[in-house]
Each structure stands twice: as C-alpha cells, then as structure tokens.
Specification:
The protein is elongated. The longest helix is centred in the middle third of the chain and has 37 residues, at 92-128. It has a single domain (32-65, 79-300), classed as MetI-like fold. Helix 2 (28-45) packs across helix 4 (92-128), helix 4 (92-128) packs antiparallel against helix 5 and helix 8 (175-189) packs antiparallel against helix 11 (218-241). It is an all-alpha fold and 303 residues long. It contains 13 helices and no strands.
Length: 303
C-alpha cells in the first residue's frame, strides 16, 4: 500500500518535470514573443485601470506635448504625458493601451469568421468534389484576383464604416487560405482506411467529415490561424489609417498613425509609438506562427 501511494505521489512530480522540459525546449526568442502577446492581453483587459488618462479627453492647452523625458521643466500643475500628447492634447500612452482592445477583438473575431467559413467550405470541396469543388474554388480564385483594398472601399461605401462591418469584411477576406488547405488535406484523407471503415459501418457524411477528417486536419489550420492573426491586425490598421476602419474618436493604432503622419517632423511621437507597438505585436505573432508550423508539421523536423 505504501509503495502504491508512493507511485501515485510520484506521478504529478514526473508530469511537472516533463512540462518543465518542454518549456525549456522553447527557444528564448519565442518565449519573448509569448511574453509580448501575454502583455498585450493584460494591457487590453486592464486598460481602464492602467491607462494614466482618459484616452478621449482633449486639452488644447497641452497639444503636441513631447514625452516627459524630452521636457526640460515640468510645471507643477502640468499633466504628465509619458509618451507625449497628440494634436488635440490627448495622452498617447492611454490611447495606445485602449487601442490594443480594438486590435485583439478585430483580430480574433476576423480570424474566427475566416477560419470557420474557409474550413467548412474546404471540407465540402474536398469531400464531395466535382461540382461542389469547382464552384467553391472558382469563388476563391475570383476573390484572390480582386484587390482587397478596392473591395473594402466598395463594401464600406455601400454599408458604411462600423466596427461590425470591419470585422466581417476582414474575416471574409481570409477564408480562401483556410479553404485551400482544408481541401488539400481532405483529398489526402478521405480515401484512408479509417474513413473507409466508418463508411462501411454506415457512418453518414457529417460523421465522417466532423468526427474522422476534421480532427486530423486541425494542426495546419491552427498554424494558419496564428499567422492570419498578424494579417488581420495589419489589415485593420491599414483600413483605419485610410479612414475606412475604426472611426474617431475610438483609438486604434492605424488611426493614430494616420493622424500623426502630418506631424512627423514636429511631433514624431504621435505616429512612432503606435507604429512600434503594432510592429512588436505583429512580429511576435508571426514568429510564434512560424515556430508552431515547425513543431506541428512533421515534414519540417530535422531530427
């Protein structure tokens, strides 16, 4: 009995040791990228508590105030702008912190829409083939041939700029990649023995697609979703920069870049600091996606 109890107590320790070994195998640059993304999540969740000022509060008296380390003398009653203020006297740091919410919500919502729509269409195209595959792939090729910016301008001109329209538009723009990958994976799996066994036992199409095929193609789709997150954040920033995305006064990194471009010589901090945050987040997400691809794809393993 004592020996059995000792073995039961040793299992959690062994499991913890195995987890620590797996964490140690993660390269240091990837850990840094993970910390950046975790920091972004915390910043978005705690934006109301950690932002030093109201991101929408204007004070023309302190417009274009430089960051605090560039100020020679701080007046007693002067507000402390850690990263400076914009052309309307709004605190840059507070707007960057609140803009992280926009990037995360738009990014994950758009990836979710594109991933679900693309995966379902790819499953249907690969499994049923023939006319279903031809129609879906023809629609995919048509969308790829049409420039996304022109599509965005046309759609927003008709339905108007709003947060919901932006999420749906960016989400629909990315379904083609998921559909192509899902279709290719299904074509290689639908004739496998385990699928034929389920079919011979009377399994219907839905059971075969969602119980047998879908779980086996999730790994490449997860990698694509990770890489697509960086793309959606960039697209949101691009559309906001052009005035087609998040509308003022709601802060967004792309909108802040657009507002600060005419002040690059006199007040460079308006555009530089949001650009630095945007670059750090997208690079971190892309690097994590590349690492996941190397880990989850056995054909890329070198030993």
């Amino acid at each position: 009995m004592e020996a059995a109890a000792g073995r039961l107590q040793a299992k959690p320790k062994k499991s913890r040791n195995k987890t620590l070994q797996q964490v140690r195998k993660i390269p240091m640059p990837i850990l840094v990228c993970v910390l950046v993304i975790v920091g972004l999540f915390l910043m978005a969740l705690l934006a109301d508590y950690i932002s030093p000022m109201d991101p929408l509060k204007q004070s023309l008296r302190y417009r274009l105030a430089p960051p605090y380390w560039m100020t020679e003398e701080l007046a007693k009653n002067r507000p402390l702008f850690a990263l400076g203020s914009d052309q309307l006297g709004r605190d840059i740091l507070s707007r960057i912190i609140h803009a992280s919410r926009v990037s995360l919500i738009v990014g994950f919502a758009a990836v979710g829409i594109g991933g679900v729509v693309g995966t379902l269409l790819g499953l249907l195209a690969g499994y049923f083939g023939r006319y279903v595959e031809e129609v879906i792939m023809m629609v995919a090729d048509t969308q790829l041939a049409f420039p996304f910016i022109l599509l965005a301008i046309a759609v927003i001109a008709v339905v108007g700029p709003s947060f919901e329209n932006l999420v749906v538009l960016i989400g629909i723009s990315g379904w083609v990649t998921y559909a192509r990958i899902a279709r290719a994976q299904v074509l290689s799996l639908k004739e496998k023995e385990f699928v034929e066994a389920t079919r011979s036992l009377g399994g219907n199409h839905l059971r075969i697609i969602f119980r047998n095929i879908l779980p086996n193609i999730l790994s490449p789709l997860i990698v694509v979703a990770t890489l697509d997150l960086a793309r959606t954040i960039i697209l949101e920033s691009t559309l906001s920069f052009l005035g087609l995305g998040i509308q003022p006064p709601t802060p967004s990194w792309g909108g802040m870049l657009g507002e600060g471009r005419q002040y690059l010589h006199s007040a460079w901090w308006i555009a530089i600091f949001p650009g630095m945050f945007l670059m750090a987040v997208t690079l971190s997400v892309s690097r994590i996606g590349d690492w996941l691809r190397d880990v989850l794809d056995p054909t890329l393993r070198t030993g």
